[in-house]
TrEMBL record, chain A:
The keyword RNA-binding does not apply. Keywords: Cell membrane, Membrane, Transmembrane, Transmembrane helix. It is a multi-pass membrane protein. The chain crosses the membrane at residues 23-43, 49-74, 86-107. It is found in: Cell membrane. Coiled coil: none annotated. It comes from the Bacteria. Pfam families: COX4_pro. It comes from Formosa maritima. This is Cytochrome C oxidase subunit IV family protein. GO terms for cellular component: plasma membrane.
UniProtKB/TrEMBL annotation, chain B:
PROSITE patterns: COX3. GO terms for cellular component: plasma membrane. Its main location: membrane. It comes from Formosa maritima. It comes from the Bacteria. This is Cytochrome oxidase subunit III. Belongs to the cytochrome c oxidase subunit 3 family. It is found in: Cell membrane.
Amino acid sequence: MAHAHKLEILRGLVKFKSNTQKIWGVLILLTIVTTVEVVLGIYKPEVLMGHIIGMKILNWIFIILTIVKAYYITWDFMHMRDETAALRRMVVWTAIFLICYLIFILLQEGGYIESVYSNGYIKRDF
Amino acid sequence: MDTTVVNTGTEGKTWGGGNEPLKASYGKMMMWFFIVSDALTFSGFLAAYGFSRFKFIGSWPIADEVFTHVPFFHGNYPMIYVAFMTFVLIMSSVTMVLAVDAGHHMNKAKVTFYMFLTIIGGLIFVGSQAWEWSTFIKGDYGAVQTKGGNILQFVDTDGKRVALRDFVVAEEKDRTAHESKNGLWFVSEGTLPTYTVDEVVAGLVANENILVRTQEINEHGEKTVLDRGASLQQLKVNGKVVVEGANLHVNEYGSPLFADFFFFITGFHGFHVFSGVVINIIIFFNVILGTYERRKSYEMVEKVGLYWHFVDLVWVFVFTFFYLV
């Protein structure tokens, strides 16, 4: 099996000589991202406590960093970078579309039910 | 003379058959499609968690106060252990991808070695999760549940958490736990809490410096602490059950739904890790036996690798939504 690996990450900013080296490079990247998340999670800087679009800035940062990690796990560990564009799109966009739909429905309705509570129409848990 | 037409004259053309437009084998493609469907299952769970959290946005437990333990160390270390677990899982993903890479070079010794490390990483992770579960089930400070199902916790005047065992004195009790051997055999009862609500009330009355903390989150993002008068009032009027630890019905950290989702989602993920480890072990032995050497392809390692990375991928999201956000 002749496997041609694409050996650059961060849009060509970092280039690796071999596939093994790229794997370690991605590990370092993931470790840095996780460390940043954990440090932010422990110290919770006051600056990041403001709200943007209904959520704390800190939480937005967490979610974005998570998606960054997910991208590198899929693209480099699962070799999505080396698959054909058709397979990649089939897997990724299907998942993204359906997940966005799920999240929208459930969070929207959760917010509505919370408002029923806080407006005092219903006190009891249901 | 041939009786069947073997050649259609369209070989090599788009519709001549035998094309592989995705340039991936059947098995690998099916693994990808399984992963997509499994990803949807997990997002369903996590979105349901989000739903419940939005429903109780003003009183949801704060994860930093729940997961604060590290094995062999006493004290308050939020996040440290989960960060360690995350790192273990990412590391085992790395050894897995190294095994896949060694497989591409048909290097049996290296594949064996890296598969072995991957299995060890998986076992450490599952073990850590079991420990985390047992700590969560056992609980830490104890709390009192009100008639309305809310949780009252106890803090001192500096806002530091106080455990029930530090200020409540257990008295002689008449009530014993029901056992099926000396009662109704088809009825069972869990362990009785160490203290009764009356004992907790007596303890609170006797200790001037202890206050009640409700699960409502105030504008500073912290749980509301009642003043002394309100503390006594609240506990005496509404206190119903003493809760120690968490199970599917009650949860000393706050909303029982938090515990339900914790058990369900991390349990489902843990089960994935467990089955991943089992599959990895099977493949590991196949590698040792030389099955893939004879097959002249280590693609099987790549396929289980996909599954294993997916487990890691899910954990990254569970980590964010359970422990960080």
